[in-house]
């Protein structure tokens, strides 16, 4: 789960990670009032669940309250398109108005899970503010990776080592080390999957401040963090993923054009690999699960059909607990209700597969039944290109 910058900054503040003073505004008038309260120059920042706002006009400096109001009015209610949002962008519903800072330098810091090592890793670079991917590609020696033992937490010497790499010494090194330890505490306490500050700045008077704040949380651990769950912004969720969640379906939207419905996460992964290998591109991941009934199947199928990018569908079911005849009924029902404009390729094996194929054949709807999975993948990749 993702949260907004202003929410992440509130958490930062409560953990002793320093952030600029700021006020949230959902109207231009509130934007003006916030700017008036701060007095001098402010920064108006669009609050959406995506980065890259700076380059896209979602972070702007206002010298006066009039200007702040104008900037807020220009952002609120409009879609902001950044390289992370996709072409349709995200509607800006709130802006964060912060007291502007005089920046001496910009640093990058993040904490995430190193899956290969099985422990958290802190990444830090003195080259913050820009795309960290670019730093990693061109000057990898400018990024320090510090693994952290999850049982001990971030040790003082590790935190100081990172701070020294970032160019701090003396008092400022201790301030930076403390900030890193506090950030690590948030990551650990809240089961975050990512904690990122880009940029972490040193102001001209030598203060350390998190100018940006990004926190992602592990969905599977949310049940033990009701405070984090409350931060969820339904307006930012993908509406198809939201619908899927309501039906208890494991659905993730992807970029391709082949809708995929499979039972079992492992089989779904294998199916997507085969589609890729055949030159196709999946539009989603969907595991309907073992015990799905006709209703759930229908819901899953409707969700795939309502994705406008989908040009072909592959249904791959191995009937174990889920019977193939039930699946066929669900698919036929959903196809009748929704109307299908794209080719559907089905591969059924296992419990009541014969019966399932008969239901499909007698439905009068056009399905292509494939015997083998590799044939099915090749077929769907072919028709998706037409
Ligand atoms: P992002 O582009 O979505 O990651 O948004 P950020 O919060 O990182 O802001 C983008 C850039 O705006 C930062 O890298 C800073 O260079 C700049 N910026 C943000 N706040 C201030 C500020 O208070 N003063 C100045 N001078 N620049 C700022
Ligand atoms: Mn940033």
Describe the protein's architecture and organization.
Helix content is about 35%, strand content about 25%. The protein is built from 13 helices and 18 strands. It is α+β, with helices and mostly antiparallel strands and about 375 residues long. Strands 7, 8, 9, 10, 11 and 12 form a six-stranded antiparallel beta sheet that branches. A four-stranded antiparallel beta sheet has the order 1-6-2-3, with helices on one face. A four-stranded parallel beta sheet has the order 14-16-17-18, with helices on both faces. The chain has helices at about 5-15, 30-40, 65-75, 130-140, 155-165, 170-190, 225-230, 240-245, 265-275, 295-305, 325-340, 355-360, 375-385, and strands spanning about 20-25, 40-45, 60, 80, 90, 95-100, 105-115, 120-125, 145, 190-205, 210, 215, 250-255, 260, 285, 310-320, 345-350, 365-370. The longest helix has 20 residues, at about 170-190. The mean pLDDT is about 95. The chain has three domains: about 1-20 and about 100-235, D-amino Acid Aminotransferase, Chain A, domain 1 (2-Layer Sandwich), CATH 3.30.470; about 20-100, Dna Ligase, domain 1 (2-Layer Sandwich); about 240-385, 3-Layer(aba) Sandwich (Rossmann fold), CATH 3.40.50. Bound molecules: guanosine-5'-diphosphate and manganese (II) ion.
Characterize this entry briefly.
The protein has helices spanning 5-14, 28-38, 65-75, 132-138, 156-165, 170-189, 226-229, 239-246, 265-277, 294-305, 324-338, 353-362, 373-385, and strands at residues 22-25, 42-46, 59-62, 79-80, 90-91, 95-99, 103-114, 119-125, 144-147, 192-203, 208-210, 214-217, 250-253, 258-262, 284-287, 312-319, 344-350, 367-369. It is of the alpha+beta class and 386 residues long. Strands 7, 8, 9, 10, 11 and 12 form a 6-stranded antiparallel beta sheet that branches. Strands 1-6-2-3 form a 4-stranded antiparallel beta sheet, with helices on one face.
């Amino acid at each position: 789960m993702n949260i907004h910058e202003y929410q992440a900054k509130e958490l930062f503040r409560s953990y002793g990670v320093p952030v600029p003073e700021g006020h949230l505004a959902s109207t231009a008038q509130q934007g003006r009032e916030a700017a008036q309260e701060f007095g001098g120059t402010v920064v108006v920042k669009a609050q959406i669940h995506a980065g890259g706002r700076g380059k896209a006009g979602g972070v702007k400096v206002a010298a006066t309250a009039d200007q702040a109001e104008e900037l807020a009015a220009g952002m609120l209610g409009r879609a902001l398109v950044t390289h992370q949002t996709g072409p349709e962008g995200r509607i800006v519903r709130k802006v964060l108005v912060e007291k502007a800072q005089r920046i001496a330098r910009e640093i990058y810091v993040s904490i995430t899970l190193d899956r290969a090592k099985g422990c958290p890793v802190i990444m830090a670079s003195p080259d913050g503010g820009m795309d960290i991917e670019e730093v990693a590609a061109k000057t990898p020696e400018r990024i320090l990776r510090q693994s952290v033992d999850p049982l001990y937490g971030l040790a003082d010497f590790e935190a100081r080592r990172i701070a020294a790499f970032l160019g701090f010494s003396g008092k400022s090194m201790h301030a930076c080390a403390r900030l890193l330890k506090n950030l690590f505490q948030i990551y650990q306490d809240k089961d975050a999957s990512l904690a990122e500050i880009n940029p972490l700045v040193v102001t001209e008077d030598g203060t350390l401040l998190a100018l940006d704040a990004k926190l992602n949380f592990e969905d599977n651990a949310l049940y033990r963090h009701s405070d984090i769950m409350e931060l969820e912004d339904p307006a930012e969720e993908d509406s198809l993923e939201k619908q899927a969640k309501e039906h208890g379906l494991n659905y993730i939207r992807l970029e391709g054009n082949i809708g995929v419905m499979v039972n079992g996460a492992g089989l779904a992964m294998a199916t997507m690999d085969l589609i890729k290998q055949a030159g196709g591109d999946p539009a989603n991941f969907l595991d309907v699960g073992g015990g799905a009934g006709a209703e759930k199947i229908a819901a899953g199928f409707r969700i795939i059909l309502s994705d406008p990018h989908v040009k072909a569908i592959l249904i791959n079911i191995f009937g174990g607990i889920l019977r193939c005849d039930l699946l066929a009924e669900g698919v036929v029902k959903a196809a009748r209700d929704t109307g299908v404009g794209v080719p559907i390729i089905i591969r059924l094996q296992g419990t009541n597969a014969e019966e399932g194929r008969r239901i499909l054949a007698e439905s009068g709807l056009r399905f292509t039944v494939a015997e083998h999975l590799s044939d099915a993948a090749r077929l769907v990749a072919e028709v998706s290109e037409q």
